[in-house]
Design a protein that fits this description.
It comes from Micrococcus endophyticus. This is LmbE family N-acetylglucosaminyl deacetylase. One of its GO terms (biological process) is glycoside metabolic process. By secondary structure, this protein is of the alpha/beta class. The protein has 8 helices and 7 strands; from the N terminus they run H-E-H-E-H-E-H-E-H-H-E-E-H-H-E. It has a single domain, classed as LmbE-like (Rossmann fold). It is 40% helix and 17% strand. Helix 2 crosses helix 7, helix 3 runs antiparallel to helix 7 and helix 4 crosses helix 5.
Length: 258
């Protein structure tokens, strides 16, 4: 079991001040980590969001991709305001066609060097076979692109040297915080008790994606309940949590070639 930790305590333990959260689609970050992001923002951290694709292949009507893109951007901005994010970046990739190629990784490296976060939050690059809906190919590609960008590209001055000429100098990211991880990888459970309404209101903003809002809310609440119960144990007081795989990229004992 992993003792749940509050967002503020997690940030204080690792000395985080800035977090960049990267999702494949609008609403991914809200499903995976909205309560944690809200808690980090409330604790005084600067929270910036990045959405890699436009989400133009999602939704339950026939507006067309351009109208859907505009709608989903607006929904994500509304959700970001709910969780207290300072800024939302859209990378403009095509929904359903994401690959962790150099074009995507260059965009991520540029953004990471601009924001210079202590921790990058994103989806896990490994498939969870017990929850295929979380293992959308774009989710896996997003996670892989983020991991490849975070190491070694963002800290390698010879990777994308044109970025340094633009004033985006190499730097070292300290941690990755990855959601939708397979159960065996989850090593950090964030206690978000009291932040559940923030998460649900953020998800409510993505109305184009929810044919049954009540069912979505029940599912998300049940998932947070299970994460807390599994981590704290059945004898613990009831609570709600989000679960992650915390990865140290650069710690006190890290030896790097750059």
């Amino acid at each position: 079991m992993t003792t749940p930790i509050t967002p503020a305590a997690l940030a204080a333990e690792h000395g985080w001040r800035t977090v960049l959260a990267v999702g494949a689609h609008p609403d991914d970050l809200d499903f995976g980590a909205a309560a944690t992001l809200a808690g980090l923002s409330a604790a005084g951290l600067r929270v910036e969001l990045c959405v890699v694709t436009d989400g133009d292949a999602g939704g339950f009507d026939s507006e067309g991709p351009e109208a859907m893109t505009a709608r989903r951007h607006a929904e994500q901005r509304a959700a970001a305001a709910v969780v207290g994010a300072h800024e939302v970046h859209f990378l403009g990739e095509r929904d359903g066609h994401l690959e962790p190629d150099h074009g995507v990784r260059r965009k991520l490296v540029a953004l990471m060097r601009r924001v210079r976060p202590d921790v990058v939050l994103s989806t896990h690059p490994e498939r969870d076979w017990e929850l295929m809906q979380a293992a959308h190919p774009d989710h896996l590609a997003c996670g892989e692109a983020v991991v490849r960008a975070a190491y070694p590209a963002v800290e390698n001055p010879y990777a994308y040297p044109e970025l340094a000429a633009e004033g985006l100098e190499a730097f070292k990211i300290r941690h990755l915080l990855l959601y939708s991880a397979p159960a065996a990888r989850r090593n950090t459970v964030v206690d978000v008790t009291g932040l559940e309404d923030v998460k649900l209101r953020a998800l409510d903003a993505h109305i184009s994606q929810h044919p049954d809002v009540a069912a979505m809310r029940r599912h998300v609440h049940a998932q947070m309940t299970e994460h807390h119960r599994h981590a704290a144990g059945p004898a613990a007081a009831p609570g709600l949590a989000e679960a992650f795989h915390l990865v140290t990229v650069n710690g006190p004992g890290t030896i790097s070639g750059f």
